[in-house]
């Protein structure tokens, strides 16, 4: 019977999907001139509702992440600052605003109920990770998460609290190895930095590289210390098409799944890599973007789907509604159903996007070179003596064993990597909080 159940599950492509959403998240406002619009989350949610997809999945309202949950990764003084600052008391915090990169001279403004906003999206990601850890879902979704630029003690690129790092730390309580994939057009620098020195998390980021925020994510940045080879960076150019993206994404991810064998996968689905994005310069259709979701789903490993960037908000809603349907294996119509935000989808009222005639600067040769270099990096991992994938001990044991050399900062890292070096000890404290060790 067991084998029959497995057979049916694989053939129908049906997964148990849980979806995390808080009705207040879309009411937060970065300001009139700011491109990040949490309102897009309301558009996406209502589109998902109008397609009837909520009937096929478990829908949850998250708990609000506490400050102590956030300090599993972030520093206490930074979280204390985020929890206290408001537009009305700014003048008392000028030194800290500069130190933590927040306020009017940065891209991370202080707005009303900022901390509650971070509590919502981080709470969703943590709850989603717990759902996967308990084997209660095959796929968990939080479109309000994926804020990949936030650092341990610094806001960056519209991101304050790094919900992705918090979710991965949660997954590491159960899984020996976690894979992070980032298809936002920007480099997933905050997540990469957090896990740059560990072999328990592999990060793979596909992004525009060269004269583009945040400037990191070169192909030669592959990790440090025990994490050497476990950071994968795929630098790409403007005009990226569905076809070219698949030519690099699929072989790289296949090789990663084969060599790294993660117990869980986190996929950040930033929608600023779509055609027509206000800040992006790729030319992907919904199909090309969602093909990454479909492809990772096919490996039958617990999967956490997160949002991220996305600045043409009607297309963000289209993208995440469609990717919800892909996660569910439920086809949906190309005609947008009537909903509270129907007018946003004017004039065509269609779901799918048509790429433009923009030139694709990713040539056959450039993509071939990138793919070859990365496959070689992954090939080298297989021969690395420290990598014994079949014999990785449970999470808490690994953490304890590594405790002795976590604090060393003398190694020759790239500027700023010291922060990542401390994640091991942060992780240990996180686990002590719940009494694992
Ligand atoms: Zn982005």
TrEMBL record:
E.C. no: 3.5.1.98
Biased composition (Basic and acidic residues): 402-437
Enzymatic class: hydrolase
Keyword tRNA-binding: no
Entry's localization field: Nucleus
One GO MF term attached to the UniProt entry: metal ion binding
The protein, known as: Histone deacetylase
UniProt organism field: Triparma columacea
Stretches for region Disordered: 399-437
Lineage: Eukaryota, Sar, Stramenopiles, Ochrophyta, Bolidophyceae
Any one Gene Ontology BP term: epigenetic regulation of gene expression
Binding sites annotated in the UniProt record for substrate: 107, 157, 311
GO CC term, one of those recorded: nucleus
Record key words, sorted: Chromatin regulator, Hydrolase, Metal-binding, Nucleus, Repressor, Transcription, Transcription regulation
Active site residues per record: 149 (proton acceptor)
């Amino acid at each position: 019977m067991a084998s029959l159940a497995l057979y049916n599950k694989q053939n129908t492509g049906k997964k148990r999907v849980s979806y995390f959403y808080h009705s207040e998240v879309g009411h937060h406002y970065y300001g009139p001139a700011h491109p990040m619009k949490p309102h897009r989350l309301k558009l996406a949610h209502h589109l998902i509702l109008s397609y009837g997809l909520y009937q096929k999945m478990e829908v949850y309202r998250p708990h609000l992440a506490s400050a102590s949950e956030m300090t599993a990764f972030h520093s206490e003084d930074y979280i204390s600052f985020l929890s206290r600052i408001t537009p009305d008391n700014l003048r008392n915090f000028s030194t800290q605003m500069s130190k933590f990169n927040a306020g009017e001279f940065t891209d991370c403004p202080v707005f009303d109920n900022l901390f509650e906003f971070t509590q919502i999206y981080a709470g969703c990601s943590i709850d989603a990770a717990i759902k996967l850890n308990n084997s209660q879902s095959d796929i968990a979704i939080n479109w309000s998460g994926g804020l990949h630029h936030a650092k341990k003690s610094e806001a960056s690129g519209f991101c304050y609290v790094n919900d992705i790092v918090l979710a991965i730390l949660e997954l590491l309580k159960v899984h020996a190895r976690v894979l992070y994939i980032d298809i936002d057009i920007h480099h997933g620098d905050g997540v990469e930095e957090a896990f740059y020195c560990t072999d328990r998390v592999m990060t793979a980021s596909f992004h525009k590289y060269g004269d583009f925020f945040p400037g990191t994510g070169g192909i030669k940045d592959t990790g440090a210390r025990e994490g050497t080879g476990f950071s994968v960076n795929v630098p790409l150019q403007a005009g990226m098409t569905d076809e070219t993206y698949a030519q690099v994404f699929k072989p790289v991810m296949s090789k990663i799944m084969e060599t790294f064998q993660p117990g869980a996968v986190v996929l950040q689905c930033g929608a600023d890599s779509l055609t027509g994005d206000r800040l992006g310069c790729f030319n992907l259709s919904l199909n090309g973007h969602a093909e990454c979701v479909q492809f990772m789903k096919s490996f039958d490993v617990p999967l956490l789907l997160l949002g991220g960037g996305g600045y043409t908000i009607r297309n963000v809603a289209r993208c995440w509604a469609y990717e919800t349907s892909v996660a569910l294996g439920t086809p949906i119509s190309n005609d947008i159903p009537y909903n509270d935000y129907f007018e946003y989808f004017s004039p065509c009222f269609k779901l799918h996007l048509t790429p433009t005639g923009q030139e694709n600067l990713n040539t056959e040769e450039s993509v071939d070179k990138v793919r070859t270099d990365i496959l070689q990096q992954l090939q080298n991992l297989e021969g690395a003596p420290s990598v014994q994938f079949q014999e990785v001990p449970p999470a808490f044991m690994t953490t304890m064993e590594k405790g002795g050399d976590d604090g060393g900062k003398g190694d020759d890292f790239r500027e700023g990597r010291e922060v990542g070096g401390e994640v091991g000890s942060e992780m240990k404290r996180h686990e002590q909080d719940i009494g694992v060790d």
